What we know:
This protein is mostly helical and 147 residues long.
Amino acid sequence: xxxxxxxxxxxxxxxxxxxxxxxxxxxxxxxxxxxxxxxxxxxxxxxxxxxxxxxxxxxxxxxxxxxxxxxxxxxxxxxxxxxxxxxxxxxxxxxxxxxxxxxxxxxxxxxxxxxxxxxxxxxxxxxxxxxxxxxxxxxxxxxxxxx
Length: 147
């Protein structure tokens, strides 16, 4: 599965484009005011809301928000988190080549995400979708939501 992630998404931008289509299929919605009046800032994955006048990124208010970790590594971490019962932060840090403190924070963020959004995650995983799509959708769940 990990090899498939890097084959399906050979670059970070490929995965960002995939996430962009998953999160906002046709219209980009501001994560702060839910307005559809947004402008993309150049060729980046940043946007400007013309209603509330804020700038935001593709991963705003998601589990990946405020992180410098490559997004494909988040997808690999999600896969390992779901499939390895003995996943420790030290093991994760070696597998995805990040600092052990970073791996610890990533695992904690995923634990918080699953604790707060269990019902939404169960609904997503109940749909007949590809495993990578399900994991990506889970990573994109708004962290402000409560179950």
